[in-house]
Amino acid sequence: MIDKDAADDAGYRALPPAIDVRVTASQRAALFKALRRQWRELGEKEPYWSVCTHDEYRTANLDAAAKARFYATGAEHAGLIQLFCARTATPLPRRACLELGCGVGRMTKHLAAIFERVIAADISEGNLREARAMAAEAGLANIEFVLLRSPEDIARVKRFDAFVSVITLQHNQPPVQRYLLEEILGNLAPGGVFLFQAQTYHPGYGFDIEAYLAAPPDTMEMHSLPMSEILRLIDRRGGLALEVLEDDWTGRRGSHTFFGMKRAGGGLFGMKRAAGG
Question: pTM for the whole thing?
Fold first, then answer.
């Protein structure tokens, strides 16, 4: 019998299946439509469980004590942006933070204590309804909630100097992940910081846009965006990756946390090209 680690190692050393990351605007819209359908249902039926998939957070089991424990888990995770800044001697701008995939506000509640303003974006109306209720109950007036009805909605969010996202990107198909990151990092203010988590590989994972659109799934999805794509994207948008650490957000190997900052000028590759003529 081959144990899980050995199987993962074999996948780690193998040439992975193809992953489509570049699609047309109409294909991207179709991908996002499929995502909205999934998360509309999850947000209405299981808003808390869809964020943290533990049985105690299912609607049938959720009582006041479980809900309190749920929101308490967001404190440490929201504080990661402070930890990574301290560890890398990077100043933390505190004016405005964009949180992608805020869900029901598990981390949002605690980010609101770190930043002057939080822009909390999510795809699910049901999740945002719960997040707004949490903010009202906690008396948090510095949170702006944004419903993403299309991938282009994220490009309209501007004027933020911190970006945070965990356990969100992997639920988006690779082309959507790539688009969201490119737009967000492009709009991040110079000197701003980012901390986001993404599944970068999983043994045997591939993504074919035509096959996917022919039969999109109805359940919560898990996808990978190759690390090479992410690192190139960070640089292209003028970012500097200061740390890339493997994490346990997905419960399996291949998930990584990316931390860095936005340069005042262009990316390293761009400067090399300019210097070369």
Answer: 0.90
